[in-house]
Amino acid sequence: MLKVIPVRAQAGISGFESPAAEYRQLGLDLDELLIEHPSATFIGQAQGDSMTGVGIFDGDLLIVDRAASPTSLDVVVANLNGSFVCKLFDRKSNVLLSPGLDTQPYPLGPGDTFEEEGIVVRSVRMHRYVRWLSQCMR
Description:
seven-stranded antiparallel β-sheet; disordered N terminus
């Protein structure tokens, strides 16, 4: 069950009421909020800075859905020539894009082995190091 303390903060606040004064509980858990197809969903961890242009940063958790309906310019996790990548996939042009760097688009060619593993439907920013997470992502 997700518990929410509604706090609205503005720049220049000198003080505000205790957040617990408006504490309430929602009838929703994080699985329900983040995962639409539980049996077709896996979690990965982003590495590198190539996707910062779409808000995915090094260390973020990626919620990847294999059952999501594909659209052009989805963020996908795929196996490209034996390496896992996270890229924007322009399905119309058959091109992979990296919006975080000054990187040229990568057109998929006949010599490439490309297998889409799923669509990144959510990402979660990790603000603190989590030991058990680093151990299970090895």
